[in-house]
Every structure is written in structure tokens, then in C-alpha cells.
Design brief:
Elements: H1 2-8, H2 23-29, H3 31-49, H4 67-70, H5 77-83, H6 86-106, H7 108-120, H8 123-134, H9 141-152, H10 157-164, H11 176-204, H12 208-216, H13 221-246, H14 255-261, H15 267-270, H16 273-283, H17 288-315
């Protein structure tokens, strides 16, 4: 009888569970932490979530006198107009190509730079190179574009060197075949130092005794990078890759850079969705429904890319963002 009672009695867990606490008591307990988060939550509520109400304009024909609520619904008419517009299709493919190429050409560069600075530079030299390479990030694209235009214009240093060797002057900024490489090179030059900071921080977090032990065991520099540095960097690389893919159609196409460098001769290879929206706003007038539809399409594509990148990171054995 005693055995049967013992068998029916559930076994007590060895761990003592902490009593559950209500959400209100938790907030009261950590009130100062929640107060520090409050400005950020208010900022996101005001500038990120409240404006999402305007997405309804993509399905309406906006009328100033009636406002957003009173404007008539027109279904998917704005999207149909958008998808049949050849200029939008050209801008869409330019955005995809430029963003992907920037990702391919730029993303590995800060990782390589961080490894080189960490492994080959002494402390003072590392700080010197890091400062020199980080500095362009703090210069706006308006100023940088002025410098680039002066260098690559027909009377600039670039063409003077070409003419010195008997070549014909030609500005890459008005050449369809050369404009995109200029975008990729100048983007890497501006951002490589800034983006390498996170990877240097990740490398600094690796226990130096691991490198010393590997060196004592006879591992050369390449083996130490492959077996110690890379595993320490891999999770950081995965997270930053997901974030960059999620922002591919926004920061990847970089409105400021292209807007300040491009001109009508290179529209066919340089006009992106952002520059298309900017130019179209002045040509077709205040068609807010059409412009909102462009933004909705761009957001949906960014969301799909973010989901794909997160799934890819999980398949590679990393945790991902969610």
C-alpha cells in the first residue's frame, strides 16, 4: 500500500523554483532600468509605429480635402501602376544589383582588416591605422562626393594622370560601365574602418592564452586564425550579416551617395528606388498613394530578405536574431 502511494506521488524537483512575480511588481523592482528604456520606446512608438498608419495610403486615392480617413479606397490600383512602370522596374533592379554587389565587395573587407590589424600591428600602429581608416565615416556624403567629383572630373587628377600616359580623358561618373565600381570602391573606403571596430572588439574578447598555447604547440599564424580567431568571430559575423541583409534595400543602395554622384547619363545603371521616389515626387506631383505603394513594396522585399538571411544563419549553426 505504501509502495503504491509512493508511486502515485509525483517526485519533487531537486531545483527550488522561485515564486512567480507579477509584471507590475517586476517593473516596480527594476523601475530605474525601465525608466532608461522609456525614451527609446517612446521614440519608436512616435517615429516608427505611429507613421505605419500612413501605409493605408497605398490602397487609397489621396484627397487633401478629405484627408487620409476620407479618401476613397482604390484597392491595388497603385501597385498595378507601379509594376507596369518601366522606370520603376529599372530602379528596382538597379537597387538589387547595387545593394548585392556592395554586400559582396564590402562585407568581408572589415573582417579582413580587423584580423590584419589584430594579428600584424603593434598596439600604437593599430590605433593609428584604425583612426586613419575610421575617419572617412564621419565625413558626410555631400563633402565626400565633392572631393570624388573633383578627382574624377575631366579636369581632375584622375584624367591628368591618364593624359600623362597618352590616354583620352573620360570621367567615370558619366560612364555607365565605370559608375557602379566607383560606388563600390568609395563605399568600402568610407565604411571599412568603422565596420571593423565590432570585429576588433570580438577578437579582443578571445582569451589570449589560447593563442599563446597554440603558438607553443607549433601552430602557425594561419592555423591560429583558422582555429581560434574565426570561431570567436563567427557568431558576430552571422548577426551583422543578417542586419546588413535586412537593410540591403535601404542602406545598401545608400541614397546620399548615389544622389550626390549620379547624373542623367548614368540613370540607366544608377537610378535606385530611393532616387526614383525623390525624382518622381517632383515630376508627377503629390501622388502620395503611388509613392506609399513604392515604399510598401520595398519594405516587403526587405522583410523577405531578412527572413531568408536569418534562416540561413540558423542552418549554419548560429542562433540568428529570433
Amino acid at each position: 500500500m505504501a509502495d503504491s502511494v509512493t508511486a502515485r506521488t509525483p517526485k519533487r524537483s531537486l531545483r527550488t523554483r522561485a515564486p512567480k512575480q507579477s509584471l507590475g511588481k517586476t517593473i516596480l523592482q527594476y523601475k530605474y532600468f525601465y525608466l532608461m528604456v522609456l525614451p527609446v520606446l517612446i521614440w519608436y512608438a512616435l517615429f516608427s509605429y505611429a507613421p505605419m498608419y500612413g501605409v493605408t495610403l497605398a490602397f487609397k486615392s489621396f484627397n487633401y480635402s478629405k484627408g487620409i480617413l476620407g479618401s476613397p479606397w482604390i484597392g491595388l490600383e497603385n501597385f498595378q501602376t507601379l509594376l507596369t512602370d518601366p522606370d520603376f522596374r529599372r530602379a528596382f533592379w538597379n537597387t538589387v544589383i547595387i545593394s548585392l554587389m556592395k554586400l559582396v565587395t564590402h562585407f568581408p573587407m572589415p573582417i579582413i582588416l580587423a584580423i590584419v590589424l589584430y594579428e600584424f600591428s603593434r598596439t600604437k600602429m593599430k590605433r593609428f591605422f584604425q583612426t586613419i581608416l575610421t575617419f572617412p565615416h564621419f565625413i558626410s556624403w555631400v563633402v565626400l562626393s565633392g572631393i570624388i567629383i573633383n578627382i574624377l572630373s575631366k579636369d581632375g587628377i584622375y584624367n591628368q594622370i591618364i593624359m600623362l600616359f597618352g590616354g583620352d580623358p573620360n570621367s567615370p561618373l558619366v560612364d555607365e560601365s565605370a559608375f557602379r565600381p566607383v560606388l563600390y570602391i568609395t563605399h568600402v573606403w568610407r565604411e571599412i574602418g568603422w565596420d571593423s571596430i565590432i570585429y576588433l572588439a570580438a577578437l579582443a574578447g578571445i582569451n589570449p592564452e589560447l593563442f599563446e598555447a597554440a603558438e607553443v604547440d607549433g601552430a602557425n599564424r594561419f592555423r591560429r586564425l583558422l582555429n581560434i580567431a574565426w570561431p570567436g568571430l563567427k557568431s558576430t559575423v552571422a548577426v551583422l550579416l543578417i542586419l546588413q541583409v535586412g537593410q540591403l534595400l535601404t542602406q545598401g543602395s545608400s541614397f546620399e551617395q548615389i544622389f550626390n554622384l549620379y547624373s542623367s547619363p548614368v540613370y540607366s545603371v544608377a537610378d535606385t528606388i530611393d532616387t526614383y521616389i525623390y525624382r518622381t515626387s517632383f515630376t508627377i506631383g503629390s501622388d502620395f498613394g503611388y509613392m506609399t505603394a513604392v515604399g510598401v513594396v520595398k519594405s516587403i522585399i526587405s522583410l523577405i530578405l531578412l527572413w531568408a538571411a536569418n534562416s540561413f544563419a540558423k542552418k549554419m549553426g548560429e542562433e540568428g536574431l529570433y
